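The data layer described in this paper is built around a simple, fixed record for each protein. We quote a single record here, exactly as it is kept in our systems:
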Amino acid sequence: MADYDYDLFVIGAGSGGVRAARLTALDGKKVAVAEEYRVGGTCVIRGCVPKKFMVMASEVSHALEIAEGYGWSFDNAKFDWPAFLEAKDVEIARLSGIYAANLGKAGVELVHGRAVLKDAHTVEIVGKNRTITAEKILIATGGRPWVPQDLPGVEHAITSEEAFHLPELPKRILIAGGGYIAVEFAGIFAGLGVETTLIYRGPNILRGFDDDVRAHLAGEIEKRGVKVILGCQHEKIEKTATGLVNHLENGMKLETDVVMFATGRIPHVKDLGLEAAGVELNDEGAIKVDPYSKTTADNIWAIGDVTDRMNLTPVAIREAVAFHQTVYRDNPQHFDYEAVATAVFSQPPVGVVGLTEAEARRSCAKGVDVYVTRFRPMKYAFTGSDERVLMKLVVDADTQRVVGVHIVGPESPEMIQLAAIAVKAGLTKGQWDATCAVHPTMAEELVTLKEKQSAANMAAG
């Protein structure tokens, strides 16, 4: 066998790369991981974690409104953006440090710098005059925001990555996009008192989600102060003395202080040297892998967002575990992408697992039964709010298995984690019904839904 510097070299120290590196090093292998920015990757540094802190900060304004309905009063309540940023950055640095420390404890060498493949077994650390060889290589470089580079004036816009570090909170913002990131940041900025507009070129937000969820959330975020413009996109962005003028295809002109593009993320494969190593991309520009995460090069694997299979942090971690078991434990495994729960930390939030109604109608041979409820949460009883929760169960009419659960409302991400266990286990509607409710809770609706939605109701709503 050839003499290599490392048994495994990992490119990218995000959640997936770190997990794979640690597990392999703990098995006694010589492992190194290269990171061009900060340890922790998208989730910890510029994604889920700082975004969730921003969500929690922005939810306080709504909580204060609810509290006033319960008799509380608040004088001169205000939000300090610089103080929040400082606290957020301190915590992110702490978490990044923990990731780095855990690598060290496992015996993984951390290489600070951008790694580029020179061939199937060799990487160069750019600007460090260092070349490294490895028996096996794992690519876990994640994704990066996509923006329409041909849009006139796009250089004046920011992405989610810059949104975490704005020097001051804008008074007005326009967010372009309709997916997770767009609706989450719309809720964040609106909750912090920013005049917020969301534009999306599609007919409704959250493409790929259940249609009832999409329609319900679009209405609910408008109740929280977000102006939603659908079926529209930019023609150009014009910088003026007083702000940024957004020229839209429908003829509207909106002046804002900040324009943010949340129009999707693409695999981070640019200038990675993939061709030199024999690693091919698929038609969507992601690294092509087999079910076991192996690329078209025999000794190179890839996991996480760079493969564009299911772009969720917990999935990248599971892919890392499967890679380790397959390659170093002689226990071939691949991750099961069926019935993976996910949450959108919009305001109100969304939690879903399993099939949408449309997907179920295509895959369930004898049709589906649908159960839907919409109601005002008990906590809003004293506020006069007309916000509503949506809960929906999609059931295979033949087997009576619950194949989809969709929730929009407070605490839905927490509820969906537990509902996902039942969906993954293949429990039937009868078994859900046999579970005694916890009262008074919102979640009890999941086990008390009895009336199927009729065709007439579906047509009406």
